[in-house]
Amino acid sequence: MIPTAFPQHRATPLLDDPPLSTALKAQDPPGANPNIAGPSSATTTLSPAPPASGPTDQTAAGIAAPAAATAAGTVVIIYGQNQEHIVQLVAEVLGKPWTTEASLGMLARANDTAVVGILAHDLARSLQGCERSSLILVNTYCVENGSAPEDSLTESCDYEFLYLRGPFLRRDLSRFLSLIFGQTRPHDDLRTKTRTNFISTTFPDVHAALPNLDILSVGSDAVEIRVDLLVEPVPKGWTTPPVPSLKYVGQQLMLLRQHTELPIIFTVRCTRENGKFPMDDPALFYKYLRRAIQWGVEYVDVELWLPEEIRRQLFEKKGHSMILSAFHDFSGTWKWTSEEAQRIFTESAKYADIVKMIAMVHTIEENYELEYFRSTIKSRGAGPPLSAVNMGQMGQLSRALNTVFSPITHPLLPMIAAPGQLTAAEINEALHIMGQLPKRELYAIGSFRSTPHSMFMEKCLNELGLPHNFTSVDRGPKGSMESVLVQPHFGGAYLNPPVPTTTSFIPAASDAARAIGLVDTIAMTPGEATPGTSRFIGENAAWKGIRATLTREYVPSAYSSRAAIILASSQADASAAIFALRSLAVGTIYTVGFKASGPLAAGLEPFTSIQSVKRVEQPFVIVSALPPEKSLLVQPLLRHYGVNGRCSPPCTRGRVYLDLTSGLRKGDPLAVATRAGWTAYGVEDVSAWTTVETLRLLVGQNVPFDFVRMASGRPLF
Ligand SMILES: O=C1C[C@@](O)(C(=O)O)C[C@@H](O)[C@@H]1O
């Protein structure tokens, strides 16, 4: 049983709000400038330069630069009868105004300032004589009654978003839009990891996977949906079709995507390569794989036997999806040392972001040959990374040695996807035995002793089959932390509360940690695995937790150039949030309760009087990092802007409230925010995302958000 883990948001009874003026007075920082920005400066403030460290850390985090514009073209949302709400929702998630048109001919030039909705029924007529290349057509379709869009409609569009109304809709939409517009690049993120795994799910129906999906995907960086293994239900007495229909596949994919934040790999495996898809019609493969790109799937598996023209076209049309070229040899006569192996790689690499080569073997030596082959590919330098493993019991060694997208299984799956597959824990155990993953002493330093959080960390280590020890130590008198860091097997730590970057025992700090001024994680520098001789780096995981929370239901560019307000009693409490907002290129950040100084201060304006509130445009985001006893003070602002705020840009309704306060608080700002129309998040979401990042920094493994959130003891939704 996983223990209850994180600080819980306590819903205390609503207290009366202090008036807005009292709230601001109470928070006036000493010496704050009373001449605060008027409306014009609020809207024309120069975009603050991103923090010096921004790009480096952002690249490492797989974060595409926040685009001010969504895409080079007008985003046209095609919607069904009585489904106009989806146009508004898309606009909200993109942070743009919207309109509906009866004809696209009216849109003279590419214009990315607004989202345009058009009824599906009007599309074909309206496209005639229209400059198609300046439009990005996204078909939206509600699958509520089990129906599916017309093929011809889907094919005339660039992308398609299938949806069900419900609690996941907005999140799923944000993920879809972020991917198709290149605003999140999960592949860039994964490329920086030393090892990556994906779980091959083998369910005939994704519904069966949902109850265990969180636990199934611990240790995975992506989830594979084996489309060829899906079995479409048919009425009694009917025969099951040889392949699941696109309609069924679309619904299954939508369901899976709604239940995991991990990137999805869309695989249609043919009969010759251990799959179920017949090979007599390559065009059918094209149809399914092309559709996966239109659906915004992160990775599309394209088999090498498919005609070159099909592979080329898919690669050319991949948008921001990544192509995984796949080759399997079941003959039992495969030779990694052959020229054929080199040729297969070269051919695969022509149209691939990752090349996957897999062969059935019968001797242990064939694993050594594979390792030699891997080294020859590495020595070629340029080209896509190689993911290569052997199948069969004799090939298991190669599954531990492969570092790029190792296919893994889990005991809760109905069957293994290929002979010899291992679990994430088995791979880690094997690596440990082979001396590739030495045991490390990890620490939680601060006020953690016997807290649920460190118990949860230990649980994760067990689940992942990692050999490390995890110890909680209270931060004691001066010098006590240094003594931990010099332990011979010290292998990393997380620190709560964080410590200033300037603290003497903190080793080198990452760019982000330096800009924020705080270190919350001490991790081994990438590529090092041996405790005792390793070098360490001070990191800040909190800002990534904040950013991940902020972008769950809005794409990064929704924040671009828009006003934000941060309330805190000190800059230290606000700095990770400032950094996260800067990484999203927000406009002016108004501060309440503290005055910023140093590198983070550029573009911040203290917000001090009631007049200032009246003159400032509607902020898109409010973050409160107030201590619990002052948490009440944010409520008047939430109410004021929730009801009275002037919108910018006009007609966009979205706004985000993030509450970073933990502990017994006064009032219930989250409830106030929700009632006033804000998309509200509490500290539990940020803590869960931060834990995901911390584990990744400390042990290089992915523990999905939903698993962490589930373990925090509160139902997810
Ligand atoms: O390509 C692969 C690898 C695999 O065949 C394996 O050997 O683990 C399993 C498949 O599901 C996946 O698509």
Automatic annotation (TrEMBL):
<dbReference type="InterPro" id="IPR013785">
    <property type="entry name" value="Aldolase_TIM"/>
</dbReference>
<dbReference type="InterPro" id="IPR050068">
    <property type="entry name" value="MurA_subfamily"/>
</dbReference>
<protein>
    <recommendedName>
        <fullName>Pentafunctional AROM polypeptide</fullName>
    </recommendedName>
</protein>
<dbReference type="Pfam" id="PF01487">
    <property type="entry name" value="DHquinase_I"/>
</dbReference>
<dbReference type="GO" id="GO:0003855">
    <property type="term" value="F:3-dehydroquinate dehydratase activity"/>
</dbReference>
<dbReference type="InterPro" id="IPR001381">
    <property type="entry name" value="DHquinase_I"/>
</dbReference>
<feature type="region of interest" description="Disordered">
    <location>
        <begin position="1"/>
        <end position="61"/>
    </location>
</feature>
<feature type="compositionally biased region" description="Polar residues">
    <location>
        <begin position="38"/>
        <end position="47"/>
    </location>
</feature>
